Amino acid sequence: MRAGELRCAGRVLYAGSVADDVSCRCGWCGDDPVYVAYHDTEWGVPLRDDQALFALLVLEGAQAGLSWITILRRRDGYRAAYDGFDPDRIARWSDDRLDELAGDPRIIRNRAKIRSARQNARAYLALRDEAGSFSDLVWSFVDHTPLVNTWRDGAQVPATTGTAKRLSNELRRCGFSFVGPTISYAFMQSAGLVNDHLVSCFRWSTASAETR
Predict the structure, then answer these.
(1) Which among 28, 38, 42, 170 is annotated as catalytic?
(2) Residue ranges of the alpha helices (H) in the chain?
(3) What is this structure's pTM?
(4) pLDDT by residue (tens digit) across 128-143?
């Protein structure tokens, strides 16, 4: 391979070119249909809706110590069990409700993570009352514009960054839990605050220009 070349699906893509073949994807999604659909339509696409961002943060916290595909396959189950990710309803969960959820097979039955969902809902509502918008807070860490990286290899993509650490610290200050630097960076990637698609991926040039 010559300097400046990129390869995908047996083709050579020269520096500055954009993959137009949908087979040119980031390698982490493999060929699992659920993962591929998530990669193609959600990952790296800017998400600015307050409640949708809250739901994503809850799911990212549930992922801790697990693979993201494990959570994606349970996402509908979480939505049903977690009252549609309605923070007002989650914030009012009783301890008895937490106990019930700890036995719900639709979700990861980890008591600390379930309790965290209630804590995060309460933190979200307090933040909303004080600042008005969860989205504005989160997006302020990237000046409300997606950061577009130019990674050529998956090994270059970091597990966290200084920006993610600052976001993590602020979320913790606001009372959120399960929002460490690694989870916060995964959240940033999923919500499109950062575009970490490889430059050889067909979504690299388009994801940040969309919204959901």
Answers:
(1) 38
(2) 33-41, 50-63, 68-72, 75-81, 87-91, 95-101, 111-131, 134-139, 162-173, 181-190
(3) 0.89
(4) 999 889 999 999 999 9
